[in-house]
Backbone:
């Protein structure tokens, strides 16, 4: 996993609960927890599921070591639940509905089925963070106000590559 992707996942986990603060307390956090669901195609695209899980585990570990999430004067540990969407809109929507019923606070998603799942998450006030699909059109504050990106979009990556290659005068 690249340092940039690891940093992105850690930063995203830090923004999941924007109303909360992250403490540096050495006091143990309570046993209460908040759940973040990892809704990826881990079976059909195992590398996607793996880097999503590893990045989220790293972020959760860092947050929990720092005392967890402080919300309303109470501390919560971050708990992860990984589910496989199988690249299926139906399965993905079932996963999101389950996350809603279990009171998840956020969903990290590969992005492939976000057009089908964002309404259910939005109705429950749950943000979806896309960590794989780079289609910039998936993030549309007017159409999908609860969908955010933690993976860089194609156009940004193309510009970065052009900036890197231009001074090399490759033929």
Residues:
């Amino acid at each position: 996993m690249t340092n940039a992707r690891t940093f992105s996942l850690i930063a995203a986990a830090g923004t999941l609960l924007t109303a909360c603060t992250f403490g540096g307390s050495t006091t143990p956090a309570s046993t209460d927890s908040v759940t973040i669901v990892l809704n990826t195609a881990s079976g059909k695209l195992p590398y996607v599921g793996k880097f999503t899980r590893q990045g989220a585990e790293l972020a959760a570990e860092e947050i929990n070591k720092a005392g967890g999430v402080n919300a309303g004067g109470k501390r919560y540990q971050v708990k992860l639940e990984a589910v496989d969407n199988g690249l299926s809109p139906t399965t993905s929507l079932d996963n999101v509905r389950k996350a809603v019923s279990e009171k998840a606070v956020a969903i990290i998603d590969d992005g492939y089925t976000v057009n089908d799942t964002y309404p259910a998450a939005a109705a429950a006030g749950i943000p979806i963070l896309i960590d794989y699909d780079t289609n910039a059109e998936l993030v549309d504050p007017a159409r999908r106000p609860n969908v955010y990106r933690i993976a860089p979009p194609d156009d940004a990556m193309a510009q970065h590559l052009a900036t890197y290659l231009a001074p090399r005068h490759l033929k």
